[in-house]
């Protein structure tokens, strides 16, 4: 059994990884600055950290800290001596990264380099897992996009995520750090509060509000249920084939926003769907990613289609009082 330190472990994806690691019998340290990216006044779900950690909070060693605070980060890693480090901490939203480009650089790139700076000096860490994004590819030229697809990020988020990958590989080559890179995409599920399209659609549907599809609703995304994302990250983190490799960890299928809306209309026949033709030209044209490499090398096997994922998401949210048991 391993001790795993998760930077950004209190977040949406990190919390699911925590549940799974504890179920497997591992020890978990969460290093997190508990940042709100959306004003807490605007968030419908107020107690999301409590909801994310229901039943497991007392089994985790929570350390509040920011990856940009180098001395504190080093101290926590030296004190806790984890065998594996999963690096999720980063400004996670593309639109926000473009608006707050300096914050994106320090949060995404400098934060990752600060962890790598500690890793060059210690020998107890058997694996560093850097969480990247499908945004590093820019416009998909090949669908499904494989891991060796050209990397032409179109905006600040994809660019800084990619720079973090390059630094992960460079430090690893120079200082012998065993690393893996994971590229998720369009992760959705209960307790995401960053106002991604999936969250807005599901919450609006539950509250009886309309949803708006931009770019004619024809943009396809590889929507991935958060349980599959967490499974894939763990597979990469523990499999020896994961070392020195980058993996797409998604469902492996592109669903358009119209298809997302149609699935929701199956649950909410009166849901009003507004379609706007306006297109954001800086948003990369994406779609399915190839997950063959992860399937073959680390045994990744995603289970949850978008139809099933939306059903499970709604089941959890219908029990919450804030949605009035709709
Ligand atoms: N959700 C997605 O669809 C998606 C897709 C691709 C990649 N990712 C990546 O996955 C990671 C996690 O995303 P998420 O959706 O769980 O976001 P999230 O906002 O729910 O979680 C991020 C967590 O990191 C913490 N954090 C941020 N900056 C920090 C810092 N400098 N020091 C310490 N803690 C910090 C935040 O407090 C938060 O708890 C991010 O790196 C994101 O870029 C997410």
What's a quick, concise take on this entry?
The protein has 326 residues and is of the alpha/beta class. It is 39% helix and 14% strand. It has one domain (3-193, 224-252, 287-303): NAD(P)-binding Rossmann-like Domain (Rossmann fold, 3-Layer(aba) Sandwich), CATH 3.40.50.720.
Give an overview of the whole structure.
A seven-stranded parallel β-sheet has the order 3-2-1-4-5-6-11, with helices on both faces. It is globular and about 60 Å long. Helix 9 (257-267) packs across helix 11 (306-318). It has one domain (3-193, 224-252, 287-303): Rossmann fold (3-Layer(aba) Sandwich), CATH 3.40.50. It is of the alpha/beta class. 39% of the residues lie in helices and 14% in strands. The model has no long low-confidence stretch (mean pLDDT 96). Bound molecules: nicotinamide-adenine-dinucleotide (NAD). Residues 7-8, 10-14, 32-35, 37, 66-68, 88-90, 92, 107, 111, 131, 133, 184-187, 194 line the site of nicotinamide-adenine-dinucleotide.
- Shape annotation: globular
Share of residues in strands: 5-15%
Q: What class do helices, strands and sheet pairing give?
A: alpha/beta
Strand segment tally: 13
The fold-level CATH name is Rossmann fold
Q: What is the residue-mean pLDDT, rounded to a whole number?
A: 96
N-to-C CA distance: 42 Å
CATH class reads Alpha Beta
Bound molecules: nicotinamide-adenine-dinucleotide
CATH superfamily: NAD(P)-binding Rossmann-like Domain
Sheet with the most strands: spatial strand order: 3-2-1-4-5-6-11
From the alpha-carbon coordinates, what is the Rg to the nearest angstrom?
19 Å
Largest sheet: 7 strands, parallel
List SSEs in N-to-C order.
EHEHEHEHHEHEEHEEEHEEHEHH
């Amino acid at each position: 059994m391993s001790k795993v330190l998760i930077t950004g472990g209190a977040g949406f994806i990190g919390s699911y990884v925590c549940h799974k690691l504890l179920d497997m019998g591992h020890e978990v340290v969460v290093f997190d600055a508990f940042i709100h990216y959306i004003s807490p006044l605007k968030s419908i779900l107020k107690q999301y950290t409590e909801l994310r950690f229901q039943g497991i909070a007392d089994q985790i060693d929570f350390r509040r800290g920011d990856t940009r605070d180098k001395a504190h980060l080093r101290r926590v890693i030296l004190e806790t001596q984890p065998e594996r480090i999963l690096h999720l901490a980063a400004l996670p939203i593309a639109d926000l990264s473009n608006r707050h480009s300096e914050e994106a650089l320090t949060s995404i790139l400098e934060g990752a380099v600060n962890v790598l700076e500690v890793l060059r000096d210690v020998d107890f860490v058997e694996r560093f897992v850097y969480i990247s994004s499908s945004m590093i590819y820019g416009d998909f030229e090949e669908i499904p996009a494989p891991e060796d697809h050209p990397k032409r990020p179109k905006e600040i988020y994809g660019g800084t995520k990619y720079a973090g990958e390059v630094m992960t590989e460079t430090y690893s080559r120079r200082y012998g750090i065993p690393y893996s890179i994971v590229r998720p995409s369009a992760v959705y599920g209960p307790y995401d509060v960053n106002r991604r399209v999936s969250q807005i659609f599901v919450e609006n549907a539950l509250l009886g509000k309309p949803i708006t599809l931009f770019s004619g609703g024809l943009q396809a995304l590889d929507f991935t249920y958060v349980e599959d994302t967490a499974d894939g990250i763990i597979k990469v983190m523990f499999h020896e084939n994961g070392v020195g490799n980058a993996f797409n960890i998604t469902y492996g299928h592109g669903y358009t926003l119209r298809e997302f809306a149609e699935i929701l209309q199956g649950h909410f026949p009166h849901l009003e769907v507004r379609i706007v033709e306006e297109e954001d030209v800086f948003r990369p044209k994406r779609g399915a990613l190839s997950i063959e490499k992860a399937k073959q090398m680390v045994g990744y096997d995603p289970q949850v289609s978008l139809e099933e994922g939306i059903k499970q998401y709604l089941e959890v949210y219908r029990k919450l009082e804030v949605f009035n048991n709709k």
